[in-house]
Each structure stands twice: as structure tokens, then as C-alpha cells.
Amino acid sequence: MEAKVARPGEGVRLTDLWDDPYPVYERLRREEPVAWVPAANRYLVTRHADIVTLERQPEIFSADEEKSLMKRVMGHSLLRKDGPSHRRERIACEPALRPATVKTHWMPEFRRIVDELIDGFIGEGEADLFDRFAAPCAALSLAGMLGLTNVDQKDLREWSQAMMDGTGNYADDPDIWRRSEAAAAGVDAALDEMIPYLQRNPDRSLVSCMLHAEDPLNREEIAANVKVIIGGGLNEPRDAIATAAFALLADPAQRAAVEADPALWRAVFEETVRWVSPIGMYPRQTTCEVELGGTLLPAGARIGVVLASGNRDESVFDRADAFDIHRAKKPHVAFGGGPHFCLGAWAARVQVGEVALPALFGRLKNLRLADEPPVRFGGWVFRGPLNLPCRWDA
After folding, report:
1. 116 lies in which domain range?
2. Residue 183 maps to a domain
3. Is there a domain that residue 248 lies in?
């Protein structure tokens, strides 16, 4: 009897993806760019071109996935909706995140938060800047933008990580479910306190915008959207700050170029989210039988759109595994695409590239990586540094 030949995706383990997914993605792009991966219980789409194609066809590649882990953890948010229902909720959120609002209203808040955080540790000469700067900077900024001024930034960080772990709990770990459910309950309690206040006192926050939209969102819709925003809206800027800082501290030549030309901070941000995409994968589901990347997908097929792989696609990006702020400009997919293009993209660009990173490198003299412990990265659904031990001249 002829032995069955294993398909490329069949040997993929979630632990390998968590440790370092990029060698796996490189192999899948080459051998089977739309591959069934039993460990993830879905087809992984790993090529840039296929990701762009599916995002342009939301009527075929639906965000409204059945038995979605995100729905289980957070409720039915706009990220898991299509068409008019998605558009309605997106319109309700947009006023808080428009470029003009970010520049005139939120950017001064970002600067205040960043300066206060740096003031708190600048005299120490050393710190884990992931824990002392990147994470609280993202959490405090997000709390303000959401309107959850009643939430401690440490609680927001804990809730975000627990819920994000839940949305990536493909191993069905019961402890992860317990933590994610407790986090969702914490968000609900905070909203129950703030919604009546924001009903009476409208402001520019996201919750206020959802409450006072022309077609206001109800309590269930607001809760689901706040939970999903706490996930991506905290993890993405946090990990982008830490990844960018690590990349520049590990490359003196590129750091010197940026410090000589502050206009390059924008390129630092874009290259950072291409190089290590904070949101590495999100789900879609086919509404009909369709061919993608040489694979015939049945109706109802569960898909993982692997942004992290598309952003390392060697057919689009030269030396794709290298961090290079001088590379030729090519369209990365770190913020997704189509109707679901990330609502917070402009806020992240300003918060990270125009405020947090320039202040960090400008105020901490002779900033450098500590000799020990080494910087560690982890994750594949969401990926970023787990620590960032640094020293500077106090």
C-alpha cells in the first residue's frame, strides 16, 4: 500500500507558531500558500496577494465566522459583522478616531501620558520598558479614547491580555477561558458605571460616540465593540512601541539615521508593523465554494488570514525578514484591508510614531539594551516582545 504523503500544514504545531512562526510561514508560502492546518482547525492564507484578494471580496470571505472565539469571549462586535450592520457600527465609532480628532484632541493627551510615564522612571537608569513604558502608554491612551476613565491601566492591561488569549485559544485551555470570562465581566462592570455618565456628559470618546451616534448603538453592541477595541487597541500600539525600540537599539546605523532625521519616525512605525505584525492572524469564513491560492475551499471553510506572513512575503518585500526603514515603499497588510481596515490605524501611527518613540529616544540619554536578560518575543495570533530590559544615563 502506498504511504500517504502529509500535506505541509499537517505537521504545523501551535507551540512552534508561538515560539517563531516565520520559518513555518515561509515554508507554507512556498509549498502550499492556502494550507489546511489541523492544529489551528482552519486554512491558513499566507501569501500577500491572496490576502489582498480575499479582503476585496467580503461577500465571499465573511468576517461573521460561525463559532468564533472572538464572539465567545467578547460578543458580536463590528469585527465579526459584514455589510450594513458592520457599516452602521463603524460609522458610530468613526468620529472619535478621525485624523483631525486624533491630531487636535488625542495627540496632546498622548504627549501628556508619555511625558508623565518617562518622568516616573527617568532617574532610575534602567527598567523593563515593556512593562514600565510600552504597556502603560498603550493602556492609558486607550482608556482615554474609550472613555473608561474609571479603569486602572493595570486592570485594562490584564483584561486585554486575557481576552486576546481567549480569542487565540485554539488549544481550548480551560484556564484561558476562565481568565477571559473574568476580564469580559470586568469590562461590563466598568461600562455599567460609565455609560450613564457619558449619556449625560457627551465627549469625544468612543463610548460617547457610540451612545450619541445618529443611529445609537445599544448596550450589547457597545460592550462587544469596547471589548474588541481593548484587545487590538492596546496590544497593537504596545507591541509596536516595544518592537520598534528593540529594532532600533539592535541596529545603531538605522537608529543614527532616525535621530539625524526625525521625519523617518513615520517609516520606523510602518516598517515595525510590517516586520513583526502585532495582529498576526484573524479569521474569515467562506460563504460559497471558491478557489484561493491554488486551493479549492468549500463553503463554510474556516480561514486564518495570516497578516504576519503576508508582510514577510519575499515576492513583495526584498530581504523580507530584515528590519529596514529605508526599504522601497510597498503596501503592507498590518492593518488589514477592505471594509474592515483598522479603525485605529491613524491613532496608532500618531501615538507610536509621532509621540511615544521620539520621546523615548529623545529623553533617555544613551538608551541601550541591557546585557541580561535577552529580549524575548512570543505569539502568532498576536505577536510582540515579552520584555524590553534597557539602560540609559540617568
Report:
1. 47-292+310-391
2. yes
3. yes
Answer yes or no: are the C-beta atoms of 249 and 136 closer than 8 Å. Answer: no
Evaluated on CA atoms 386, 158, 174, 35, the torsion sign reads: negative
- CATH number of residue 55's parent domain: 1.10.630.10
**How many domains does the chain fold into?**
1
At 313, is the pLDDT very low, low, confident or very high (cuts 50, 70, 90)? very high
Other CB atoms closer than 10 Å to residue 137's CB: what's the count? 28
Cα 43 from Cα 233, distance rounded (Å): 26
Instruction: Give the pLDDT mean for 82-105.
Output: 96
Q: Enter the C-alpha cell of residue 243.
A: 518592537
Grid coordinates belonging to 32: 502550499
Q: pLDDT band at 390, cuts 50/70/90?
A: very high
CA distances, 393 to each of 112, 120, 128, 133, 366 (Å): 23, 15, 15, 17, 6
CA pair distance 17, 28, nearest whole angstrom: 12
Q: Which residues contact 392 (CB under 8 A, 6 or more apart)?
A: 122, 125, 126, 364, 365, 366, 367, 368
Does any domain span residue 335?
yes
- CA distances to 47, 228, 237 from 234, rounded to whole Å, are 27, 10, 6
Quote the DSSP letter at residue 302. E
Asked if residue 26 is part of any domain, the answer here is no
**Distance between CA atoms of 113 and 192, rounded to whole angstroms?**
26
Measured between alpha carbons, how far is 255 from 277 in angstroms, rounded to an integer? 20
Q: Please state the separation of Cα 171 from the chain's center in Å.
A: 21
Residue 36: its H or E element: strand 34-37
Write out the H or E segment, with its range, that includes residue 208.
Answer: helix 206-211
Using DSSP, state whether 369 is helix, strand or coil. strand
